[in-house]
């Protein structure tokens, strides 16, 4: 009996520790999930930046191609213009040379030539025609020379204009080249950032996986420990029953502790040692139990339970569903039910007072873990226990 109690306490401590470690794991898992979300947001942002930069780079490359085409066209035009200039200069030079020859010829041969030409005229009409012809030749030569010189000047101007455009285009190409290099650098940085984020996401996912696995293992260990605790409690109760040979209708009856009255309600808290309320009245749990008829006080196995008010114990025995349970009649149509005990400390027919111990928390009957199911009924109808506490 004593040894069982010792084992039982050890298991209780183990259950509590396991519960704590599950909580710590839950918080780590939450953090890892949050981090995953943050990293993925960052990745999406970076991806958008990358797309914008790629678009920018494509635009610059298009501009480059356009500029290169214009440069090539301009080179072609300049080449043509240079040829034109050469030809214009040749024309100008030819005219100048022939004009010089004609003038030199005329002067070298002296006026006699002129006179000869003129004097060989048959008549005045021919003379005048020849004189005019000579004067026209020189006039024509002069005009031609001016025309050719003008053409040379015009072609030179055009070539200069083309050279200016060419220089501007070259500058534009250089500017685009610089822009392209800077966007390419930004794009490379973005890619590096993306790779880093991918790595972080991967590492975090691996960590999350590990945490989830550990949490599942811890939950399984906790469940096993709780089951062991319940089993040990049931064994302790059975041993007590065997010792006292006082069945109370099949349930083990154990010595009770001192009475405890707590809270300011009509009823005292039936399980002040509970760690939390695991289920409220009216809560949906599963299709077979759509509305919870009582309130569940989650507590370690062996925590004492108390009569909510003065009354008479009408049931104190074992049931397949309620486990070791107690029903107390308080009169005036009011009754209370206490289920899933590991052991009872009262017997049917016994008078109890408010706060008197009636049993020890367990997980007997249809129960998944140690708790006290506390139910309040008015004329056989379950009502919310909170109204009485
Ligand atoms: Zn319950």
What structural keywords apply?
single chain, 389 residues, alpha+beta, Helix Hairpins, Glucose Permease (Domain IIA), 2 domains, 10-stranded antiparallel sheet, 10 strands, 61% helix, rod-shaped, binds zinc ion
Report what the structure shows.
This protein is an alpha+beta fold and about 400 residues long. It folds into two domains: about 15-215, Helix Hairpins (Orthogonal Bundle), CATH 1.10.287; about 245-385, Glucose Permease (Domain IIA) (Distorted Sandwich). About 60% of the residues lie in helices and about 15% in strands. The chain is built from three helices and ten strands; from the N terminus they run αααββββββββββ. Strands 1, 2, 3, 4, 5, 6, 7, 8, 9 and 10 form a ten-stranded antiparallel beta sheet that branches. Helix 2 crosses helix 3. Residues about 240-250 have low confidence and may be disordered. Zinc ion binds near residues 279 and 373.
Describe, in short, the structure shown.
The chain is α+β, with helices and mostly antiparallel strands and 389 residues long.
Percent strand:
5-15%
- Gross morphology is rod-shaped
Rg, nearest Å: 56 Å
Low-confidence stretches: 242-250
What composes the largest sheet? 10 strands, antiparallel
> What's the CATH class of the largest domain, please?
Mainly Alpha
Q: Which structural class fits the helix and strand makeup?
A: alpha+beta
Total separate domains: 2
